[in-house]
Amino acid sequence: MCGGFTCSKNALTALNILYIVVAFILIGVAVYGRASALVTNLPIIGGILACGVILILISILGLIGAVKHHQVLLFFYMFILFLLFLIQFSIACACLAVNTKQQEQLAEQGWRRVGDDLKAKVQTTFICCGFNSTSTFVDDQSPLSCKHVNEICCPYPTENDCMCPACMQKLQSTIDYAFKLCGSIGLFFSFTEVNFNK
Fold this sequence. Notes:
mainly alpha, 7 helices, transmembrane helix, Tetraspanin-31, Tetraspanin/Peripherin
């Protein structure tokens, strides 16, 4: 039977090692979500990434407090971990609550912020033209000309009205998947933080 400080010390050490693993998973999911979105600089995914980094730092604080039996460090560890739970829970709920229209608005803001080279890369990768409208990008002189992409969409030169779809149509499912994945995993791990601290 386990009792005394030795058992608590071992449990806290194991818990903090688990938190380090969880933090790396959160960072990995956020990086994957950002990479799969490719277009946008989605701030919610950045919040999940920040929570992962903060969780690593807090876990190191908890490890030091547990190994040295430092009660003040352990108190701040529990307090900061609870605050992290609140932040992580809020961000995860925001990821899951974002509807299609809000995702489109966030993606459009991200589209406006990125440079033309990334926009051209997105257009080539997803075989799309423009964000919501293709009409502004048909000019051959434009740095974001859809001429090359339209040749992929419409291999027959006789079709003059053939155009690739707008990029938002192609990116919607990818952006939605990134939000849902980050939200679900963030929600799961925020509850594991609370359950293990009881």
